[in-house]
Amino acid sequence: MSDNTVEQVIIIGSGPAGYTAALYTGRANLRPLLLTGNEVGGQVAITYEVENYPGFPEGLTGPQLVEKFQQQAEKFGARIEYDWVNEVDFSQHPFVVRTASGGELRAESVIVSTGATHRKLDVPGEKEYTGFGVSYCGTCDGFFFRGKEVIVVGGGDSALEEGIFLTKFASKVTLVHRRDELRASKILQDRAFANPKIAYKWSTVVERINAAGGDGNGTPPKVVSATLRDLKSGEVYDFPADGVFVFVGHTPNSQLFNGQLAIDDAGYIQTDRRYHTSVPGVFAAGEIQDPIFRQVITSAGQGAAAAMQAEKFLGELEAHGYRQIAAERGPAALTPA
Ligand SMILES: Cc1cc2nc3c(=O)[nH]c(=O)nc-3n(C[C@H](O)[C@H](O)[C@H](O)COP(=O)(O)OP(=O)(O)OC[C@H]3O[C@@H](n4cnc5c(N)ncnc54)[C@H](O)[C@@H]3O)c2cc1C
């Protein structure tokens, strides 16, 4: 659909950051339009159980939480469209957002919350057993592995940080790394090597993740081992483990914004403390701009903050006009990196 309507706020992405931005801008009477993308609810939608989102002491499933996010945003006037954004043009104002369904939308402000994608191992068992022993988040799932033995895959800072964190719960953490040395920072390496609960499988890759149960009689599957390959000797063997934590990289979904917004070397959209991007009127929240915290609550909090800033921007726009705001932010703000 293409008409002359200019939206006050378009939100790109339906993870915790996007839905929370929709709730806040909805309650500010801005009638936000949220474009969901292909993963409605974002990463949390594939989470089996969320126990660390405040307000739900019994915990709830990821899809249940997403449903509540959406209901609450819609209650305050947010409009949700199941569409994918193909292209944006932030060099003109109102901004232009083009979607896969052929829509050419225009908006006074945009909140980008396209999140990130955890790199996968792409081995059999990984997708099937995500949430049943395969995890991409120690902070989220470590608690479920009290007294258990787990594998951590990776050799960078995330793998070591999360591996060290997991030793608070697991009786043993085996770090499986395809090289014979770690990429992680020296300080993390020192901490990991000093931790008696962490063991190492060097020059080794995971070939398959194996589970028991899940055979249709109502019992969920449960990871029991990983099939490992020693890259030096070629030996292939099953290694018992109750969980496999994968930390082989995290890719922000920012390709769409190349040439439009300032993006750092790792692909994260650059924001200031108020979630402004390099273009006045375009805000970014959640994992698309946050390589550090990566939680539902932090992403939701950043979505709320970006929404409050968008509301403030729209007030200033009405009073001063876009050219003046952009001029006050300096020439760099008008020229996307
Ligand atoms: C398996 C797993 C379990 C987890 N468990 C927990 C947990 O228990 N507790 C916790 O706090 N955190 C958990 N996390 C982390 C948490 O899910 C993330 O931190 C959070 O979802 C990030 O929110 P976000 O809104 O920034 O982005 P995301 O959740 O990544 O959502 C991004 C959204 O952007 C959309 N999108 C992307 N590109 C486009 C486009 N071009 N056009 C339109 N839309 C687009 C996607 O469809 C998606 O809706 C888990 C993560 C994973 C992977």
What is the strand and helix layout of this fold?
Elements lengths: L5 E7 L3 H12 L5 E3 L26 H14 L3 E3 L3 E5 L5 E5 L4 E9 L3 E3 L15 E2 L2 H4 L7 E5 L3 H10 L5 E5 L9 H8 L4 E4 L2 E9 L9 E9 L5 E5 L2 E4 L3 E3 L29 E3 L11 H25 L1 H8 L1 H4 L3
Parallel strand pairs: 1-2, 1-6, 2-3, 6-17, 8-15, 9-10, 9-15, 10-11
Antiparallel strand pairs: 4-5, 5-6, 7-16, 12-13, 13-14
Helix pairs in contact: 1-2, 1-6, 4-5
Bound molecules: flavin-adenine dinucleotide.
What does this structure look like?
α1 packs parallel to α2 (62-75) and α4 (157-166) packs parallel to α5 (186-193). β4 (85-89) and β5 form a beta hairpin. It contains eight helices and 17 strands. The radius of gyration is 22 Å and the shape is elongated. It has helices at residues 16-27, 62-75, 138-141, 157-166, 186-193, 296-320, 322-329, 331-334, and strands spanning 6-12, 33-35, 79-81, 85-89, 95-99, 104-112, 116-118, 134-135, 149-153, 172-176, 198-201, 204-212, 222-230, 236-240, 243-246, 250-252, 282-284. The protein is α/β, with parallel strands linked by helices. The strands form four sheets. Strands 1, 2, 3, 4, 5, 6 and 17 form a seven-stranded mixed sheet that branches. Strands 8-15-9-10-11 form a five-stranded parallel sheet, with helices on one face. The chain folds into two domains: 6-118 and 250-334, FAD/NAD(P)-binding domain (3-Layer(bba) Sandwich); 134-246, FAD/NAD(P)-binding domain, CATH 3.50.50.60. Flavin-adenine dinucleotide binds at residues 12-18, 35-39, 42-44, 46-47, 50, 52, 84-85, 113-116, 118, 130, 136-137, 140, 253, 256, 286-287, 294-297, 299.
